[in-house]
Amino acid sequence: MKFSLNTRNSTTHFTSVLAAFVIGSFSINAYAAKVYSTGAFSDSSLPSSKMDTKHSDDKQPSPLVLNGVFTQGALLRGEVPKNATVTLNDSAVSTNRDGKFVIGFDRTAPLEHTLTVTLADGSETVRHITLEKREYNIQRIDGLEQKMVTPPASVTQRIKQDNINVAKARSTNSDLDALFTRFTWPAKGPITGVYGSQRVLNGVPKWPHYGVDVGAPTGTPVYAPVDGIVTMAEDLYYSGNTLILDHGMRVFSTFLHLNSMTVNVGDRVKKGEQIGTIGETGRATGPHLDWRINLGKMRLDPQTIVTGTPQ
Rounded distance, CA 181 to CA 41, Å? Predict the structure, then answer.
């Protein structure tokens, strides 16, 4: 499977945007993800692609459907017959009552993986997955206030508590399956930062950026990319007003630096419903939305689950 990297230069003032939680990064190279598939979901709203539904040896329909971008940082969505079990590299993968499952590969994941489906009758289907290796950009930024590079001791406890609260907000494993519908961009604007790139701030290498940034004026609406349940709506030290949505099966969207949040913890929101507005709260030097996708604790690239551009 192949994908392409497209680059373009941004000339807006948003190129100075800083990411959050751990120090993020910025890149003017936007990753344009092409979706691939080895089968068709029963949910026709997923992105379409060339289908491969036959075994090459016995010409029987494959019991495995797998959709996504086969690259480092990707979230893949799959489906198998009910009562089948799935393992990835010999580790069990949870399936829901309909046989749907999700798997992810982090920023520096190995390129070779084995996915095994075992049916109720004991027969197995083995799929070898080869990921495309990605290259990430490094950006150096000097002249920042030192408190934004190394936070003062007075806020250390707050940052620790923020991290605890974020982990709790992403700890559920609900039976929602909204993530098996088509994701849409949560805001409109130019892409000003991409997943995986890294910053060196005042000469100090920092954590990679784990989201995609959309630059737009303060007050620009932010919408739910798919259905979800709000598990966090809180002001955090690094990321400012931060909202987390549970899309089901340990997949979460996080929205950082919001100017306002128009929903509350526990609210069920529909795809396309407004959940807040773009801002520059927390560690940011310009208004933008930092959108992140997590599979549990694994930080993945939102551009591997959404098509097109946010403009």
Answer: 10
**Phi, psi at residue 54, to the nearest 5°?**
-120, 145
Domains annotated for the chain, with CATH where assigned, are 15-32+135-304 (2.70.70.10), 36-130 (2.60.40)
pLDDT tens, residue order, the chain (311 aa): 333 333 333 333 333 333 333 323 333 333 333 444 444 443 433 443 333 333 444 556 789 999 999 999 999 999 999 999 999 999 999 999 999 999 999 999 999 999 999 999 999 999 999 999 999 887 777 776 766 667 788 888 999 999 999 999 999 999 898 999 999 999 999 999 999 988 777 787 778 889 999 999 999 999 999 999 999 999 999 999 999 999 999 999 999 999 999 999 999 999 999 999 999 999 888 999 999 999 999 999 999 999 999 98
Contact 104, 75 (CB under 8 A): yes
What span, in angstroms and rounded, lies between the C-alpha atoms of 89 and 92? 8
